[in-house]
Design goal:
Layout lengths: L16 E3 L3 H13 L4 E4 L9 H17 L2 E2 L8
Helix pairs in contact: 1-2
Length: 81
């Protein structure tokens, strides 16, 4: 299996992105995924609203990005489908 440094380098259509990065980076990765046509994501991380104000801000940003791009998320704490 070949690895790619960024999603934009993948030559095939991506149906689902699995995002496993720190909570404060999820929105940026989702933004990149949406820019290459990904419409479904699974987020595997910790540190959203359950951890306090900064986590809640990261979760809010994730939701904004997902809604703006029409992405569905399987993350149980930030479902936007």
């Amino acid at each position: 299996m070949k690895a790619f440094a960024t999603l934009s380098l993948i030559p095939e259509t991506i149906d689902l992105a699995i995002i496993a990065v720190p909570a404060n980076r999820v929105a940026g990765v989702l933004e990149e995924a949406a820019s290459v046509g990904v419409r479904a994501v699974t987020v595997i991380t910790a540190g959203f609203a359950e951890t306090g104000r900064s986590g809640a801000q990261a979760e809010t940003e994730l939701l904004k990005v997902a809604r703006r791009h029409g992405c569905a998320s399987s993350d149980p704490t930030a479902s936007v489908s």
